[in-house]
Amino acid sequence: MLQVEQLTRCFGDALAVDEVSFEVPDGHLVGFVGGNGAGKTTIMRMIMGVLAQSSGSMRWEGQELTASDRRDFGYMPEERGLYPKQSIVEQLAYLAQLHGVSRPEARDRAHELLSRFSLAERAKDKLETLSLGNQQRVQIIAAVISRPTMLILDEPFSGLDPAAVDDMVVLLREFTAAGVPVLFSSHQLDLVERLCDRIVILARGRVVADGDAEQLRRSGTIRHRLVAGTDVGWVRDLDWLQAIDVSGNTAIVQLASEADTDRLLTEAMRRGSVRELAELVPSVADIYREVTR
Amino acid sequence: MTAHDLAAPARTAADSTGSVWRLVAAREIRVKLRDRNFLVSTALMLVLVMAVLGIQFAFSGHTSTKKIAVQGPAATAVVTSASSMAQAADAKLKLVPVPANSPANVEAEVISGKADAGLLRAGDGWRLVSKSDRDAQLATYLGQAVQEDAVRRNAAAAGTSLPALQRGAHLPYGLLQPNGHDVKAARIGGVVFGMLFYLAALLFGMAIANSVVEEKQNRIVEIIAAAIPLRQLLIGKIVGNTVLAMAQVVLLALVGVGGLLVTGNSSLLGQLAGGIGWFVPFFLVGFLALAALWAVVGALATRSEDVQSTSAPMTALVAIVFFGGIFVTGTAQAVLSFVPVFSTIAMPARVLTGHATWWEPLVSLVIALAGAHAILRVAERMYRRALLQTSRKLSLREAFTGRDAEQPSRG
C-alpha cells in the first residue's frame, strides 16, 4: 500500500501541491482526477522521485518510500516517448534490464507483451514508425515489463482507441487481482467512474474529494424528481423543501432529509396520483464539477 | 502470461544497481554501431588517412627511373656514375643508359620519347639534351659525374691524381645526435594528434550531448531515473562513448602506422612511437573529462535544437585546447602541458619534440587524472540538476548553483 501524507510542493512562491494526503491500497485501482494544473502530474513525479517534495511524506508498506522501492515501480510519464529511432523490442528489453531482468528473459517478456497488444509483427520496427495509438501501447508495455510492485500511470488512456482501452483495462485488472496497487490519472470521468475502486479528485493542488464512486456520488447533493398525474405547481408553496425546477406535472426538488421523502410522497398522494418519485444521484462528472468549481 | 506471473517479483539474483552503467554503455555502443552517420564518418576518416598516405607515397615515397640515351662506353660510364651519386645522396633517382649507334640516334631516341634525355660528345666535353624542358635533377647529377670525370682526366694529364686535387675540398655533414628528433616530423605528429583529439572530442561530444537531450526531450529519462541512479546513467553514457572514440582513434592510428610502414617510413615511426604511446592515456583521460562536460551541455537543453546554443562554450573550449596544443611553444607550452585537458595535446607534442624529460608526462598524467575526477564530480552534480528540469533551457550557472532549477510541470 502506498500512503501519501501532507505532500506539498512549491515552485518559487506558487503552491502547486498543498498538503495532499491519500492512499492507494494493495489491489486497488485508484483514479486521479483533476483539471490541468491541479497537481496530478506533480504528485506522480514526486511519488516516482523525479521531483523532490517541499514537505510531507510518502510511505510504502508502512515504511518511508525509498529509491530502491521506486526501482520496482512501473511508471508511465505524462509526456510520452521512448527512443524513437530504436527498435521496439530492443528498447523494451533494455528498460526491463535496467530493472534487473536478464536479457533473454527481458526479450521474451517484450515479445509476449507485444503480441498481447497485437504488435508482434512490428517488434523489430523503429518506434517512430508506429501510429501514436500504437506508440502509446508500447509505452504501457514499458511501464509493466519489469512486473512492477506498484503502477503509476499518468494519463494511460489518452490516445487509445476503445479496443486498446479494453486491453489496457484487462491488463490493469490482472495487476490489481495480484494485489498490485495502481494509481492512474485521467480526464475521462466516465472511464474512471466505471473502473476505479477509489477516486481522488484534485483541484488547485488540494484533494477535494476521495472515495469510491458510490461514496462520491452520495456525498453530492441528492435531488428528487416527482412526476404526478396533475400539475405540481403546489410544490412551490411548501417551505420545507427547495423547488429547483417545476414544469407541468414534473418537479425537481431538493429535500433537507431522508424523512422528507415520505412527507413529499404523502403530500403528493393527498393531491392526486403519483407516477414517480425518484432519487437523482449525481454522476461522478457532476460531483467533479461541483467540487472543483 | 497469467495475472500472477505478471505481478511476480521482478528482480533476478544478480540485482545490484552498482553495475547498471554497463547496460547503459552497451546500449550506447549498440545504437551507435547501427547509426549510419557514425559508420559513414568513420569510413570517411579512414579513407582520408589512406588518401594522405597514398599521396605522400606517390610524391616522395618512390624512386623515379630516367632513361638516358648514350653512345659509347664513356657516356655509359658517366651515366652509371651519376646514377650511383644520386643514390648515395638519397635523391630517389635512378639513371639507366640506353645505348644508341650515333649522335643522331641519341637525339632521335630523345625526340621519340624513348629516352628522357641524351648525353652527347661536345668537343672535349659533353652536352646534355632533353626534348622540350630541362630536368634540374638530371642536370645536377650528370653535371657532377661529368665534372668528376673531366677533373680525373685533367689531373692525369697534369701528372697528378683526383684525390690529390680534391684534398680538403670535401665537406662532410654529420648529425651530432643521429637518434634525436626530427623537428618537422615531430611538429606534424603533434598536429595530427591534436587533430585526432579535436575531431573525437567534437564528434563524440556532440553525440553524447544529443543522446542526453534525446532522453530528456522524450521524457524517457523520467522512466530511467526512477529505475536506476542518474550517476549510473551518466557513467554508462561516458564509458560507452569513450570506448567508441578510443576504438575509432586506435583504428585510425593502426591504419596510419600501417601506412608509414608500407611507405617505408619506419624510421619516422620509431621517432613517433613514444609520442603515440603517451597520446593514448592522455587521450583517454582528456576525453573522459570532456565527455562529462558534454553530457552536462546536453542536460541543459530541453530540445535537441537547444544543443547548438548550450554547447557553444564546449565547442569553444575544445577549439582552444586544440589550437593551444599545436600553436603554443616554449614556456607557455610547458605550462599548458601540465594543465588538465590542455595537456592531452600539449604533453604528447612536447614528448615528440623531445622537450619533455621522462618524469614530466607521468606527473602531467597524474594531474590530468585528478582534474578529470574533479570535473566528473562537478559535471555529475550539474547533470543531475539539469536533467529532470524539462520546462526550459537552463544556463550553466543555474545548473551549477541549482538555483531556480525546478519549474512546475503541467498536470
Biggest sheet overview of chain A: 6 strands, mixed
CATH superfamily of the largest domain in chain A: P-loop containing nucleotide triphosphate hydrolases
Number of strands of chain B: 4
Q: Helix fraction of chain B?
A: 55-70%
Put simply, the count of helices of chain A is 10
What features would you describe in this structure?
The complex is a heterodimer of chains A (293) and B (411). Chain A is α/β, with parallel strands linked by helices. Chain A folds into two domains: 217 residues, Rossmann fold; 73 residues, 2-Layer Sandwich (Alpha-Beta Plaits), CATH 3.30.70. Chain A contains ten helices and 14 strands. In chain A, the strands form three sheets. Chain A has a six-stranded mixed β-sheet, sandwiched between helices. In chain A, strands 2-1-4-5 form a four-stranded antiparallel β-sheet, with helices on one face. In chain A, helix 3 crosses helix 4. The two termini of chain A are 31 Å apart. The mean pLDDT of chain A is 90. By secondary structure, chain B is of the alpha/beta class. Chain B contains 17 helices and four strands. Chain B has a four-stranded mixed β-sheet with strand order 2-1-3-4, with helices on both faces. In chain B, strand 1, helix 4 and strand 2 form a beta-alpha-beta unit. In chain B, helix 11 runs antiparallel to helix 15. Chains A and B meet through helix 1, helix 2, strand 6, helix 3 and helix 4 of A and helix 1, helix 2, helix 8 and helix 9 of B.
